[in-house]
Amino acid sequence: MAKPSPGATTCDSVLGGRLTLTQPKAGHRVGHDAVLLAAAAPAGARGMVDLGAGVGAAGLSFLARCPQALGVLVEIDPALAELARANAQANGMAGRCRAVAADVLALGRRAGPAEVAAGAADLVLMNPPYNARAAHNVSPQSGRALAHDAGEGLLEDWIKSAHRCLAPGGTLCLIHRPQALEEILAALSGRFGAAELIPLFPAPGAPAGRLIVRALKGRRTPPALLPGLVLAGADGAPSPAAEAILRAAQPLA
Fold first, then answer.
1. If exposure means fewest CB atoms within 10 Å of the residue's CB, which of 47, 72, 77, 174 is most exposed?
2. What is the dihedral of CA 167, 188, 64, 92, to 10 degrees?
3. pLDDT tens digit sequence for 155-165
4. What does the pLDDT look like over 181-233, one tens digit per residue?
5. Buried b vs exposed e over 71-97: b needs ≥16 C-beta within 10 Å?
6. Are 180 and 130 in contact (CB under 8 A)?
7. Strand partners, 72
8. pTM of full prediction above 0.70
């Protein structure tokens, strides 16, 4: 059987050339969100699952920084899942990283993929679709639509899937829009606690454009707002802190 084709692709470097990713030329493209999400994950994690992995940017960025870890990249689009598998191989990670074409909502269930066993992971990375369908025009490009369009209750469903995948005390690390904070905290309630909220600011004095949330399965500790990260200076140049993460593969402190 022929493998699914993503169409025209490009080959791009991230993490200052430490990671090379082949990705579709059209549709959703790898951006800073995936690298920042990976940088916020605890380095001590050994078993990672990347939900909605696309071509593997977040999961492979984490594995590049944490060579002792193993990972599974979960992507619903078979063509993107195949690119994620190829990217793991091209970056020398095929022995410790698998890619699976599966629906995130099937994970941790009896009929779900065997590659992601319930309660087996100690880290879940998550960059879920974040545009409410009723609030914007859905992209005609199918890959972009899958990556960005959030149906009713989708965020909570993804957090439930992360909860099934994680062992007790495991870490969920997600990136989303700050406007979704109330929905995120509601979905975490009763499942995760000790949430750390890290705002990401595009420039000094600008409102946060993204929010990283780290939370622990089974904890009941209230959330804490941590110092944020400013991505660029007033001149538009990347801040030293952002450069350390995006190019030097440093963790998000």
1. 47
2. 60
3. 999 999 999 99
4. 999 999 999 999 999 999 999 999 999 999 999 999 999 999 999 999 999 99
5. bbbbbbbebbbbbbbbbbebbebeeeb
6. yes
7. 49, 98
8. yes
